[in-house]
Every structure is written in C-alpha cells, then in structure tokens.
C-alpha cells in the first residue's frame, strides 16, 4: 500500500502496514538466513549432547567433525557430494576432510573396527566408547537428509558400518 497525501499540507502519511527500517532488504534476508542456519546448527549440537550423552556443544562439534570426516573418507564416487548437498549450510562446512586427513590418502574402504579406531583417535577415547556417539551423529545427519539419500549412503557402506548407520541412536 502506498503513502497517502495529506490534503493541503504537501506531506505524506505512511500506511500502517508499511515497514520502515534502516536495514536494507538484502541485509535483513542475510541476517534471517544466518539466524536460521545458527538455530539449525544449535539444534543439531543439542541433539548430539542429549542423545549421544556428550557433555557440551564443543565436544559435540568435535565429534561431528571427526565422524563426518571419517564418513567422507569412506564414501566413494559422488555420494559424499550428494550427502553434502542435502545438509544445511553449517553442517556442509563440517563435511570435508579434516586438516589431519586432507593431505592423507584418498578415500578407501575400511570396516567398523577401523572406523571406531579412527574416531577414537580423533576424540582421544577408547574405540568401544565411540559407538554411541557415532550412532548419534548418524541419526542427526539422517534427520537432515532424504530417505533416498540415506538409503544411497547405506548402500555404499559395508554391512558392519551399515549397521551403525541403519540403527541410529
């Protein structure tokens, strides 16, 4: 609705539905996007803390980074790109090979024992203690992607890791 002229005054009155703000529209959109991204990420970390029984958000983030890095190393072909495309922006940033693995060997096939050992080394834990955390991260990831993509990832994993993926926390 447009502003209306006040007869004889040369002034205009804004309609009550018109918004006045000093912040440009593009900037407001960017701010809303960042807020949604932050809320999604905070909910992801809270879920990991609650379900994975992780003590705090920093530990949850470290676990997510480690597990996503290991998962990225295990997925071959374009499946890691397909997964990444469905993740919210802040989680996409985690879906890269970590600094420690970036210069390492290319993706390779490994099983459950190796996955548990890799995550345990990253998180300075015992391998047997990492399983609930891996399941929690897998569950949180699956909540962010389509069923079809989840099935595609399961198809790329060996049966022993597929069990971790298929039976999340």
Describe the overall structure.
This is DUF2267 domain-containing protein. Pfam families: DUF2267. It contains 9 helices and 2 strands, in the order ββααααααααα. With 169 residues, it is mainly α. It has one domain: Uncharacterized conserved protein DUF2267 (Globin-like), CATH 1.10.490.110. The protein has a two-stranded antiparallel sheet with strand order 1-2. The longest helix is centred in the first third of the chain and has 27 residues, at 25-51.
Main traits of this protein?
169 residues; Globin-like; two-stranded antiparallel ribbon; 2 strands; DUF2267; DUF2267_sf; DUF2267 domain-containing protein
How is this fold's topology laid out?
Layout: E1 4-5, E2 12-13, H1 25-51, H2 57-74, H3 79-86, H4 89-94, H5 99-102, H6 112-123, H7 127-142, H8 147-156, H9 159-166
Summarize the structure.
This protein has 169 residues and is mainly alpha-helical. It has one domain (25-166): Uncharacterized conserved protein DUF2267 (Globin-like, Orthogonal Bundle).
The helix count comes to 9
Q: Spell out the CATH superfamily.
A: Uncharacterized conserved protein DUF2267
Number of domains: 1
Name of the top-level CATH class: Mainly Alpha
Structural class: mainly alpha
Q: Note the main sheet.
A: 2 strands, antiparallel
Distance between the termini: 52 Å
Which sequence of strands runs across the widest sheet?
1-2
Query: Are there runs of 5+ residues with pLDDT below 50, and where?
Result: none
Shape type:
globular
Taking all Cα atoms into account, the compactness measure Rg is 23 Å
Number of strands: 2
Amount of beta strand: under 5%
- What is the CATH third-level topology name? Globin-like
**Mean pLDDT reading:** 81
């Amino acid at each position: 609705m447009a502003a209306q002229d006040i007869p004889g005054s040369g002034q205009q009155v804004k309609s009550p539905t018109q918004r006045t703000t000093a912040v440009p529209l593009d900037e407001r959109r960017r701010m809303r996007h960042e807020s949604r991204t932050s809320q999604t990420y905070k909910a992801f970390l809270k879920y990991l803390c609650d379900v994975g029984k992780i003590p705090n958000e920093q530990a949850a983030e470290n676990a997510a980074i480690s597990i996503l890095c290991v998962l990225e190393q295990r997925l071959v072909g374009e499946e890691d790109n397909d997964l990444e495309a469905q993740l919210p922006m802040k989680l996409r940033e985690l879906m890269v090979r970590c600094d420690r693995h970036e210069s390492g060997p290319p993706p390779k096939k490994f099983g459950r024992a190796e996955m548990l050992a890799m995550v345990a080394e990253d998180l300075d834990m015992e391998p047997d203690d990492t399983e609930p955390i891996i399941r929690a991260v897998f569950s949180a990831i699956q909540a962010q992607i389509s069923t079809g993509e989840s099935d595609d990832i399961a198809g790329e994993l060996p049966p022993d890791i597929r069990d971790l993926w298929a039976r999340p926390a």
